[in-house]
Amino acid sequence: MRVLHTEEQLRQGVERMASEIAHAYGDRPLTIVSVLTGSVVLLADLIRMLEMPLRVGVIEASSYGGARTTRGELTVNAELLLDIRDRDVLLVDDIFDTGHTLVKVVEKVQELGAASVRTAVLLRKHGRQEVSAQPDFVGFEIPDEFVVGYGLDYDDHYRNLPYLGVLEQADLDRHHELFAASEKQ
Ligand code: 5GP
Ligand code: MG
Prior knowledge:
alpha/beta; six-stranded mixed beta sheet; binds magnesium ion; 4 helices; Rossmann fold; binds guanosine-5'-monophosphate
C-alpha cells in the first residue's frame, strides 16, 4: 500500500497537535470525547501526550448506507457518553471530509450542556468541505484520496496499520480477493 504518512510522521503531527491543545487549555480540566471508531488510535496517542487533568468519553457517529463515498443518513449515539454538562469538551475525530459528521456531533454535545466545545482531527481532506465550521486543531492536511490505517478503516479493516496508507485500486482488488476467499472457507 502506498504510504502517505509514516508512523514517525504521524507521531510528530500528533505531538504538534497535543502541544497546541495544551497551550489552548492550560491547566483547565478537559473532557476529551472520541468519535467512534476511527479516532481510537489517535485518542490513545493524544491523551498520553497531554498533562492537564482530563476525562475521556466516547460517542458514536454512523451513517447508514455503508458504501464509503455515498452519504447515508447520519446518526449520533450518545448512550455511552459520560456526563459532559458544564464541561469543556474537546471532540476528537479521525478525518474532516465533508464536515457533516463533526457538525452533527458538535450539535449533540452542545445539546447535552457542555460549557464549551472544540474539535481536533487527525486529517482534513483538501477541498472537500461542505460546511462553514472548521476543526480547531488539525494534524495533517491531505489530498482528496481514500486513506486507511492509524484507526481509519475500509470495510472495518486496516485500522491497525501503524502508518497512513492510500487505498488504491490494486489494494481494493486484493482486499476483495482475500475477503471472498475467507468467505468460501
Ligand atoms: P464527513 O462527515 O466529514 O464527510 O466524513 C466523516 C467520516 O467519513 C469520517 O469520520 C470517516 O469515517 C469517513 N471518511 C471520510 N474520508 C475518509 C477516508 O479517506 N478514509 C476513511 N477510512 N474514512 C473516511
Ligand atoms: Mg468516523
